[in-house]
Amino acid sequence: MADPWQNEYDFAVQVARAAGAVIRKAGEEEIKVQTKSSTVDLVTKTDERVEKIIIGSLKEGFGDGTHCFIGEESVSKGEPVILTDKPTWIIDPVDGTTNFVHGFPFVAVSIAFAVNKELEFGVVYSCLEDKMYKARKGKGAFCDDEQIQVSDVKDIHKSIIISEHGTDRSVEKVTKIFSTMQKILCIPVHGLRGSGTAATNMCLVASGAVEAFFEIGIHLWDIAAGVVIVREAGGLVLDVDGGPFDLMSRRMMSANNNVIAQRIIKEIEIFPVERDDAPVQKK
Ligand SMILES: O=P([O-])([O-])O[C@@H]1[C@H](O)[C@H](O)[C@@H](O)[C@H](O)[C@H]1O
Ligand SMILES: [Mg+2]
């Protein structure tokens, strides 16, 4: 049977590449910064503009009303996060906005596609490095058309682990995050890293540069595309307590294998976060 979502997949790659070119260009100009949920949760005109470009192009291609869209900036303007069985695009126009603002060279466009609430494909364009990561369910993961695979390291002492601290600066949460990092570092592991973009971090797991990446507090648009890429590269994605991964939970552990995942999970100090599909009240 012909691949039902091949057109959508090819289109997503084209749109991500075009969006990345807009981001690169915008990075050469003056960047005006605003804040969202906190003073360190940054947003720029480029985030909004690129999301409009991406959703606009997707609607031109597939705008017969059967497709739904969940985009970071639309949600921050008050749209609810509702994932139905309909074909749904999950978009982070600029993952790594803080990096973008500071000229730190990792910024990604992340586009995922889900049907019947299952992720079908993911595209992550690391636009400053000009690397196109992509994966289609059951068909492998690729970086610039070269197939990628997770690392085969099983010894935690030979691993590099990524975690991030997100944008919540409450002392209780930051304390737990750093306590977890300290425990992992002292296992000991070879190193701790973080690129500043969850989407890129997942591609680093998928391509074998690191063994695991976990974070509490990410949103579905940060990781949806990366989830497919990690799985198709032979890795696994779990909840931070070792249970099944839940796209809406804002908790995610991705690893090259279960030995590494379980060893890290033992050290994670979990703190509560509001789910992405929590009913919209306020804003
Ligand atoms: O805001 P944004 O730059 O799109 O996304 C952020 C990045 O992915 C960062 O690595 C992660 O630590 C944050 O949790 C995300 O919110
Ligand atoms: Mg993001």
UniProtKB/TrEMBL annotation:
Highest taxon above the source species: Eukaryota
Top-level EC class: hydrolase
One example of a Gene Ontology biological process annotation: inositol metabolic process
Biochemical pathway: Polyol metabolism; myo-inositol biosynthesis; myo-inositol from D-glucose 6-phosphate: step 2/2
Cofactor(s) needed for function: Mg(2+)
PROSITE patterns for the chain: IMP_1 (PS00629), IMP_2 (PS00630)
Catalytic activity annotation: glycerol 2-phosphate + H2O = glycerol + phosphate; adenosine 2'-phosphate + H2O = adenosine + phosphate; a myo-inositol phosphate + H2O = myo-inositol + phosphate; 1D-myo-inositol 5-phosphate + H2O = myo-inositol + phosphate
Cytoplasm among keywords: yes
Keyword terms, alphabetized: Cytoplasm, Hydrolase, Lithium, Magnesium, Metal-binding
GO cellular component: cytoplasm
UniProt-annotated location(s): Cytoplasm
Tagged with keyword Transmembrane helix: no
Annotated binding of Mg(2+), by residue: E72, D92, D95, D222
EC numbers for this chain: 3.1.3.25
Principal subcellular localisation of the protein: cytoplasm
A GO term for molecular function: inositol monophosphate 1-phosphatase activity
Entries under InterPro entries matching the protein: IMPase, Inositol_monoP_metal-BS, Inositol_monoPase_Li-sen, Inositol_monophosphatase-like, Inositol_monophosphatase_CS
Oligomeric form and interacting partners: Homodimer.
Similarity remark: Belongs to the inositol monophosphatase superfamily.
PANTHER family: INOSITOL MONOPHOSPHATASE, INOSITOL MONOPHOSPHATASE 1
Name of the protein described by the UniProt record: Inositol-1-monophosphatase
Organism this protein belongs to: Zoarces viviparus (Viviparous eelpout)
